[in-house]
Amino acid sequence: MSSSPIHLHGKPLNLADMLARRQQGYSLEAPFYTSREVFDADMEHIFGKHWIYVGVEPDVPEPGDYVTVQVGEKPILIVRDDDGEIRAFHNVCRHRGSRLCADERGAVGNLVCPYHQWTYNLQGQLLFAEHMGADFDPSKHRLGTVHLKNVAGLLFICLADEPPADFEELAATMTPYIAPHQVANTKIAKQIDIIEQGNWKLTMENNRECYHCTGNHPELTISLYAYSYGFAPTPETDEGVRRYDAMVAERHAKWESMGLPSAEVDRLDSMISGFRTQRMPLDKTGESQTLNTRRACNRLLANFEDGAIGGLSFWTQPNSWHHFMGDHIVTFMVMPLDQDRTLVRTKWLVHKDAVEGVDYQIDNMTAVWDATNAQDRRLVEESHLGVKSPAYRPGPYSPYTETLVEKFSNWYINRLSAYIK
């Protein structure tokens, strides 16, 4: 694919040249965040050819349950069939293109097009199409399938004809980490969607560092150890960092003995399907990301006897991050809407038998991330306004607190470069 003409403050640019001259350790040039042409390339090559996170198994708990997700101009339908298998289809009727399901979620027996009532079963086979004549062959008009992978309860789709094969490595590595939390045995206690007035890469970059946490996230940092953010080595910080590292090693040994994989795995920019994970200690009681660090749900997940098992963090390229604790799970999906707007979807999961008002109070459970999401939205939106200025120039990342931002940017540049020549 040849790159389309891009303009910055009236001057023409070339996307291939921009990719080639990207300076490692620095933020991206402004058009990567502001250009419609770059956004279109992102949707075609990043979100159109890589595995993207779209939801959780409890989104479709029973046969016939479905959810929809919009990926750029592509409406996607995810449904659990009568055999319990979760499938993904293009949410497009094979007759004249109407969306089959307009709602975000629901339950159906079959998939019936609202326009002319073409009817499909939950495996995508066309069952009924009236007035089509004796020569019409329903078998040639199945729904378009979308690749779907279920990683221990987290659902990923890929819109490419040939998805990246290394996702199997991600799944094999992550399943033992996630499986003890038994995502399939949870329910969605709350979902909140926010729209940030900023480019999706700014949203992801903001997530991949905690340089900004101390000054902006008072609620989140209650449960986080300061030395987990990354510190420049100085005589004042060396001893604190050593003590923190020793504590992490001790906790990891304990959790590993409990059957909870905990060691860091970082492949954010060394794989096409980039990811990272680590179980990290939580401060104070060590139970949960709440305002008092105590569990938000008295009904623990799975068979956990000890609620103080830290927080398992899992990051994926290009669009998600997740936190698994002993009592609940928080999962985040990022979906670009255009070059200036990004959907951030947060879900809180609890044990499927937990009772709201008895086992958990939803306001208590969501307080930390409600506040953090609002704070992050402001930061992203201010960054987006700044990068649109003629005064913006790519700035250097901290080699201590922004290493994961560099890995995100490096992954993004490498992946886009594979398609833009």
TrEMBL record:
Its cofactor is Fe cation. The keyword Nucleus does not apply. CDD domains: RHO_alpha_C_GbcA-like, Rieske_RO_Alpha_N. PROSITE patterns: RIESKE (PS51296), RING_HYDROXYL_ALPHA (PS00570). Residues 53-157 form the Rieske domain. Belongs to the bacterial ring-hydroxylating dioxygenase alpha subunit family. Transmembrane segments: none annotated. The keyword Isomerase does not apply. It comes from the Bacteria. One of its GO terms (molecular function) is dioxygenase activity. Keywords: 2Fe-2S, Dioxygenase, Iron, Iron-sulfur, Metal-binding, NAD, Oxidoreductase. This is Aromatic ring-hydroxylating dioxygenase subunit alpha. Pfam families: Rieske (PF00355), Ring_hydroxyl_A (PF00848). InterPro entries: ARHD_Rieske_2Fe_2S (IPR015881), Rieske_2Fe-2S (IPR017941), Rieske_2Fe-2S_sf (IPR036922), Ring_hydroxy_dOase_asu_C_dom (IPR015879), Rng_hydr_dOase-A (IPR001663).
